[in-house]
Amino acid sequence: MNRSELMEKKNREMKYAAKTFLHNYGSILFLLFGISLGSVIGIFFPHAVDSLKPIGDIFLNLLFVSVIPLVFFAIAASVANIEGDRVLGRIIGTMAAVFIVGIVIAGVASIIFLYLFPLSTDLPVEQSKEIIDTAKDDSWAEKIVRFLTVSEFSSLLSRQNMLAFVIFSFLVGIATRQSAAAGDLFRKFINSGNAVMGNLLVMVMRLAPIGLGAYFAYQVGTLGPQLFGFYAKPIGLYYIFGLLYFFTVFSLFAFFAYGIRGVKLYWKNNILPSLTSLSSCSSLATMPANLLAAKSIGIPDTVASVVIPLGTTLHKHGSAISCIFKIYVALLLSGQDFFNPANLIMAVGITLLVSIVAGGIPNGGYIGEMLIISVYQMPTEVIPSIMIIATLVDPLATMLNATGDTVAAMLTARLTGQKLSPHETASSE
């Protein structure tokens, strides 16, 4: 191969790498550009921000009306399409326990970290916004009734009752399964609706750089440059805690599964999945690398082939940590005490629900924001702030989400009494 051919090949590789990078991180880069442009406008043209705020409001309204039907179709379709298998019953049951315990640990650990390293409560947002206090002075029994149910069907369609709507969607999915052949037409309808509404939300989220950029311009123009320091603190804390969690907690999980040998095997084979998740920003794209890592570790195929694919959508440590941070920030912005026992209990519950349920929904993280403001009855003004934070921590959150699936498969294999394959283990070592 001559020099010109080598140069041409190198140029093709560079173009492919640039195209891949833009494909994987394009949404984040465009959002950063929108936020940066909005910040410049807010700093140098503060008189124009009142005209930009309606653009942000339009984006949020589109998001609100898109999320409600998407939640129904996505959850109902997922439950309706589940197929039971007694042979896999024990593995699935153990896997579910591992997933739930892991997400709860992530949530509780995040709460402890934020308690030890709190953010300042002197936030500029409260200086320009009148916090809408919609909290009701009622008993715990009344709170449970209000969170879980509504008295009229039409009330389900309000974002203020998101949790009740999620439960209703689950029940519709279960009823569809129990209807057997009589429910086939309805099952096709909700599957089709799931695909359509998923594409609709993708279309709406393409407007995020414009909508959130306009909202950020308004915030900067009315609150001042000190707003940048506010966003930097929770994002910085997330990356510090996320990396600490990545190396320590996952090592502990691997140790509980197969001792020191398990820790060595996990980290030796976790390099490719970690780099894949960071470069692709996608748990789904990391799944093949996780399956290869599981094979090298020696996890039985009967476990890995079930736990890792399901874990791609149902097991998300990074999303759990992100959810706690978003709730913490949202409560600070709305003038509430995050460390109130009732708020902490609800935070862990929301984290569990969002990490497991919203994981299989396109842009499901944004549904988490709706659920947060619904359960805590917050003003919608806090949504852009927590959406921006969630987007900027997404690379590390994805790595935690994806690489946690392999160690979950190790725990599931151990708890079901299975051993690492001697042949695969030997090849790994």
From TrEMBL:
Coiled-coil features, chain-numbered ranges: none
Ranges annotated as spanning the membrane: 21-46, 58-79, 91-117, 156-175, 196-218, 238-260, 342-362, 382-402
Keywords (A to Z) from UniProt: Cell membrane, Membrane, Transmembrane, Transmembrane helix, Transport
Localization per record: Cell membrane
Cross-referenced Pfam families: SDF
InterPro entries found in the cross-reference section: Na-dicarboxylate_symporter (IPR001991), Na:dicarbo_symporter_sf (IPR036458)
Bilayer topology: Multi-pass membrane protein
Source species, domain of life: Bacteria
Designated name of the protein: Dicarboxylate/amino acid:cation symporter
Organism name: Sphingobacterium thalpophilum
